[in-house]
Structure formats: structure tokens, C-alpha cells
Amino acid sequence: MSVTIPDLWPVKLIQTNAVSPASILREQGYKLAEKTRNYILGRIVSNFFNENKFSHQFDLSCDLLGFNTSLVTVAHEFSFYPADFIIHKNIFCHESRFGVADMSELETALRKYFSQTGLIDLINSLYAQCLDDDSAN
């Protein structure tokens, strides 16, 4: 005789259709990989801290060169907004932190950050170093 174990989760367990900061960052990582023939990736490292806060760190990674650097982190409570937008210090910018009130402000902050000349130069340099001599043409 087999025993059926019931589903004990509430019927309406998932009750959101909001787009999370993690989803936005992950999608940007996918877009970067597409644009760079998967040589350069945007990796997301997520953590849970202070008993009620998530952080999602966006790292620029180039496995072929063994390169990895942290670019930005978005931190939020269970509700996604407002969120903290943290820019990590690196060769082309200083560390800074500011709040974003909603998805639109997060997208604006990411668009501005991703458009920096220093970051674009870094991505182009990494990409060029991954190409074989015959594929550069």
C-alpha cells in the first residue's frame, strides 16, 4: 500500500508579477554574452544578509583570460524597491552608492553605468584578447 503525501504549500504561494533587480541584472548578463560571442559574461552572485535583505552583485567575467571583476551590486529587502545601487571601485570609476526608487530608475542607473567609456574600453580589450588571429578580420 502506497501513501500519498499531500502538498502542504498554500495554493496562492507565488503572488507576484514584479520584475526583480536580479532578473534585470541577469538579463543584462545574457545580453553582454550575446554581444561578445560568450567571451565576456555578466555573472550574478546573490546573497541574503541582515535577516531581510538580498544583494545581487554583477561581475564582469572572461573565463578564457581568467578575468573577473565586480561592477555593481543591487541590494533590496523582500519588496524589490526602493533598492541600493552600489558601484564598486575599479580602474575606471570610484565607489559610490545611491538609492533607486523603482525599476525605471534601476534601468536608468544601469544604462548610464554600462555606457561609461572606461567600461566599454575594458570590454573591447578583453574581447580582442580572446580572438584568434584569423577571427579578428
Any overview of this molecule?
This protein is an alpha+beta fold and 137 residues long. The chain has one domain (21-126). Helices cover 30% and strands 28% of the residues. The chain has 3 helices and 5 strands; from the N terminus they run αβββββαα. The protein has helices spanning 21-35, 103-114, 117-130, and strands at 41-49, 53-62, 67-76, 83-87, 96-100. A 5-stranded antiparallel beta sheet has the order 1-2-3-4-5, with helices on one face. Strand 2 (53-62) and strand 3 form a beta hairpin.
> Average pLDDT value?
91
Number of strands: 5
Runs in which pLDDT lies below 50 for 5 or more consecutive residues are none
What does the overall shape look like? globular
Q: What distance lies between the first and last C-alpha atoms, to the nearest angstrom?
A: 69 Å
Q: What is the chain-wise order of helices and strands? A: HEEEEEHH
Strand order of the largest sheet: 1-2-3-4-5
**Could you estimate the helical fraction of the residues in percent?**
25-40%
Assembly context of the chains: single chain
- How many domains? The number is 1
Structural class: alpha+beta
User: How many whole angstroms does the radius of gyration measure?
Assistant: 19 Å
Number of helices: 3
Major beta sheet, specifics?
5 strands, antiparallel
The proportion of strand residues reads 25-35%
